[in-house]
Amino acid sequence: MTPIRTVGRAALRLTRGIGAVTIFAGRGLGGLRPLPGRALGLQLIQIGWLSLPVVGLTALFTGAALALQIHSGGERFQAGDVVPAIVAIGMVRELGPVLGGLMVAARVASSIAAEIGTMRVTEQIDALVTLSTDPIRWLVTPRLWAAILSLPVLVAVGDIIGIMGGWLVGTGSLGFNSTTYIANSWAYLEFWDVASGLIKGAVFGLIVALSGCWFGMRSSRGAAGVGRATTQAVVGAAVGILAANFVLTGLFFQ
Length: 254
What we know:
Layout (H helix, E strand, L loop, with lengths): L1 H28 L7 H12 L3 H23 L8 H39 L2 H7 L4 H38 L5 H10 L3 H27 L5 H31 L1
């Protein structure tokens, strides 16, 4: 019976963990009344605006590299002319949301986990509880909603910059006419291609902020505990983004 007990204990731990994270996310998302406006504004700047350079650069070079790869592979089948369409569709459906989410996860999830973990270690969160202040509402809620609102905007900007990167390479190195390239990119895009990427961005934003807040709140005492929470937050956010992307892609395009 030992193997069965082992599997049962693992299943119970997994179920309890999923339930705890779900309750934590529900409390965080439901803490908007009254709206902590100043805290939300600060987090919109921290998560959204300050993440724009790294997301933009990542999208630019990804779109440029994608154009080169698609053209190189397409030439083997006399299909090099599909570069504009594939770059546009690939960026708005997959690469824009996923790479944007991963870049924000690397920057934001670690920052959130380190900040909240340090507050846990220095007993600032205990002080909030002593003052009858809900730490979830003041620390978690602004970060969750700021990430949910910021990521779709970052994804949209990243999509535009990524397509522009493909355009730069296509017109500068691959011999495409500028007007034709833009027309082909626009002609093959559909509304749902763009909308699905923006929905993915909102979900990825929730995963990033939730991972940072969850592991930060559960940080153990000491510098090692904060460092461990930071690492777990980034890894959890990255794995969560990739898993959610697979599920959402299956739902949207199967």
